[in-house]
Design goal:
By secondary structure, the chain is mostly helical. It folds into two domains: 32 residues; 140 residues, no CATH class. The protein has eight helices and three strands. The protein has a three-stranded antiparallel β-sheet, with helices on one face. Strand 2 and strand 3 form a beta hairpin. Helix 4 packs antiparallel against helix 7. The longest helix has 21 residues.
Amino acid sequence: MNLETYQRGLQRLITHGYSTSDDSAYLQGLVGTSRLAVAKEVVCFWRAYGLERFCILTAGLLKSMGRFENDIERFISTEKFSPFIEEAGLQFLRFMATDNDLTVAALAQTEIAFHDTRTNIDEEKAVDWPCNPEPVLLAIINRNDISPEMFAISHYRLRVCRALPGGYICELAL
C-alpha cells in the first residue's frame, strides 16, 4: 500500500467511519475503536480551530446558537475539505450558505462576499437577509449575546464593497 492509498483510507475512516476491502488490515482493524474516535476528535478540534479563525462571523453566530461543534462534525462528514484553511474556510461557508436557518445562510453568504471583495475595491456583492443584519453583526463582533428579537422577520439587503464606508451598507428591501 502506498502513502496516498493509506491516507485516503484513513480519511474515509475518520470522515465516514468505514473501511473498504482494499484497505490494509490495520485500517480495517481501526473501525469502531477508541483510537479512531480519538483521531476523529483531534481532526474535528483542529478543523474547528482553523475554521473559527477564518469564518469569524459565521462561527460566532453558530457558537452563540450552540451549533458550532455539530455543524463542524456535519461538515467534516459530508465534505471533502481542503487541507488549506483558506479553501476549507470557503468550503465551510458555502456549506453553511445552504443552511435551513435563513439567518445563518445569509451570514455565511455575507462572509463569502467579504472574502470575494477584499482584493477588488470596485467589486460589489449583495446578500438578502431575512432580518436586519446590523444588530446580528454588531453582537457577533462585540461578542454580545444574540437575542431572539434580532431575528425579527423583515427583508434587508446587505451590499458588500470595499469602496463603501465600513465595507458594507444595509438597506431595507422592498
